[in-house]
Amino acid sequence: MSAWGLQLITSILTADNPREAFEYVVETKAITPQHMLNMEAKLALEFMITWYERPLEFGRVPSKQRVEEQLPHIMLPEPREPLEDLTETVKHEFLRQQLMAAHEEFGLQLAEAPNPLEALEFIRTSVAQIDEQHVIDSDIDFATSGPTIVADYLKRIQENDGLLGVPWPWTELNKATQGIQPGDLIVFYGLPKSMKTWLVLYLGAWLVDTGHKVLVFSREMTATTMSLRCTSIFAKLAYGRLRAGTLNLEEYTRLMHANAKVEKTLKDGLLTFTKASKPDGSPGGVSDIHRKILRYKPQLVILDSAYMMTNDRAGAHSLKWGDLAAISQDVKQMATSSGVPTIMVWQENESKALKHKGSGARGTASLAMASQLIYYCDMAVRCILHPSTSEMTLQFAATREFEFDGFTIHAKPGYNFTFSKWEMYDVAEKPQEPAPGATPTTLPGADELTAIFTESLGTPTPPDLVGGGSETPTD
Q: Which of 261, 257, 232 is nearest to 412 (CA)?
């Protein structure tokens, strides 16, 4: 039995960067357990894929010791070839075995077929089937594949506590959605300056912290602004204080801890910002985003200010509804073909939002500029900000595979976007204002910060809030 597969397994596990080696073999070169002619190599790769795809610890490759403990009888030889050569050899050996088996069958058909034309047709069909196995395609014979797909689906649900896709930061949403599914197009929309960008950056940073690769597109924000915002999220710092440079000693220490963790854990390009510009510096289109996906291989794409993209079909950028509808449709096709879920940030029309206030409408009528987007997306989430309480309602205005109304989260720039309550607010609703002289709710109190950071850093020194920077929420 061929040992090339076992050598390939060892080469991945002992690589300087096992994750990068694994992704090259499984994602770039599309090696599957089926390619392994050695049963132990097949079982090892299946185990490695299952380990890598754990939703809440995504992207981790098991150690060589872990694989040997899982498969006590496996003997992993030292690789004699580079990883790239071993990958090609495994594919060639698999193809050679298929051709040899087909050759024997061809001889039988030629000897037994009453008409040689029937044998010729059999050979053509068999070769086409072998060729199809070496081309990535989506054709599925339900009778053959359906039962296996369903069995695998149920197995993954059981192994991951009901979570199948990229996880959300909110347990309540994971229970309803089973995570963000491959190929999903999700739209977050709301009125201008309603912290939509803050929300998706928080989501991206949270996913990066669980090992997922995230690609963020934005043409409105500079690299400095993006870096400041993400740093405040990773360090759980009030953004206004970081931006104003008024951190106290405890906060500065926390910042240093976060920076050290980022430098240690994000070396694999887990978080990438891009403007996806064309060579002349003009706004890129969906094709340019797709090019970045092929380069960075993210598990999630975030398109902030998606309406600033170029319509590839027209070769120009405009805010006409036809161009924006084309962009939305192309983004959905990109997400489906690449399998990478994509989040688009969009604007809401204020006059329409207020017109439908309190009507019981789910909110999609106020989606600005390209209402057709609702037909292409798998999920539309309306973001309704309440500045006086520093909260945001996430209203699920349109969903394709599940029913869910929504909930309210905290909306405190930089340090708290956790679940708040099930009660939801309507647009332009004004909760009770704090009493005169009361501490503004947008500034974190010492008790709140202590509760947030004790788990990760131990009991901190209460921060000095005097002279803190403004935390006025903006997109």
A: 232
Position 449, amino acid = L
* Lowest-confidence pick of 164-168, 268-272, 411-415: 268-272
Cβ distance 225 to 311 under 8 Å?
no
Sheet of 419-421, strands arranged across: 271-274, 214-217, 300-303, 342-347, 185-190, 379-386, 391-399, 406-410, 419-421
Residue pair 293/215 in contact (Cβ under 8 Å)? The answer is yes
Q: Which residues pair with 244 in a beta bridge?
A: none
- Sign of the C-alpha dihedral computed for residues 309, 312, 318 and 320 taken in this order: negative
Enclosing H/E stretch for 148: helix 142-159
**Most confident region among 94-108, 126-140, 193-207, 347-361 by mean pLDDT:** 193-207
Q: How far apart are the first and last CA of the chain?
A: 59
Residue 385, SS3? strand
Domain of 355, in residue numbers: 171-457
Kindly report the pTM of this predicted structure.
0.67
What span, in angstroms and rounded, lies between the C-alpha atoms of 206 and 169?
7
Q: Is 194 helix (H, G, I), strand (E, B) or coil?
A: coil
CA distance 378 to 339: 13
Q: Specify the CATH number for the domain of residue 42.
A: 1.10.860
For residue 60, give every residue at least 6 positions away whose Cβ sits within 8 Å of its Cβ, in sequence order, or none: 19, 51, 52, 54, 211
Whole-angstrom Cα distance, residue 445 to residue 463?
A: 8
Whole-angstrom distance, CA of residue 405 vs CA of residue 394? 9
Integer-rounded Cα Rg, in Å, for the chain is: 26
pLDDT band at 464 (very low <50, low <70, confident <90, very high): very low
- State the residue for tokens 């002289």: 437
Task: Say how far apart CA 55 and CA 160 lie, in whole Å.
Answer: 7
Domain count along the chain: 2
In this structure, are 236 and 122 located in the same domain? no
